[in-house]
Amino acid sequence: MQTIAQILAPLVLLLPGLGVVEVPRDAAFPLDPFQPQAAEQVSIQQRVTVRINPRPAPMPLDAMRFDSEIERDGPRFVERKIGKCLTMDSISGVQPIDNSRLLLFLRDRRMVTARLEKGCQGREFYSGFIVARNSDAQICAGRDRLQSRSGMGCQVSGFRQVVQIND
Q: Is 157 exposed, middle or buried (0-12, 13-18, 19+ CB in 10 A)?
């Protein structure tokens, strides 16, 4: 059985043609519902974010010994200058090292540390981070903010390449 609204709906469309309802010619809506409405202005905005997932280190992080740390058995690593920017596409994973640094794994099997600005906790990035993609597709120190999945946003203050020292 049809409801009253289903019965009256076609009749309402006939009212302007019968002269019962006056519709002004300069109405904001088109008289023909199948004619597209002219757009005054169209604004298209695009925002691309890149997600870097966590990745386990090739060896336990506590086994990695940096040159400034106390003597332990196992391989030794030093950090060397690498530059101010890294391409986003070269990063394949991340792992927090300590309170102020992240270990980034690159697709060419290099490792890079990213030092975070003061007040940022590296452990907040345990589940990776997202970053807004720029026109140059790079993450630069002092420019870009890394957003952790828990909501913390931190700026990178510098990058260093991690190199193993052979004794």
A: middle
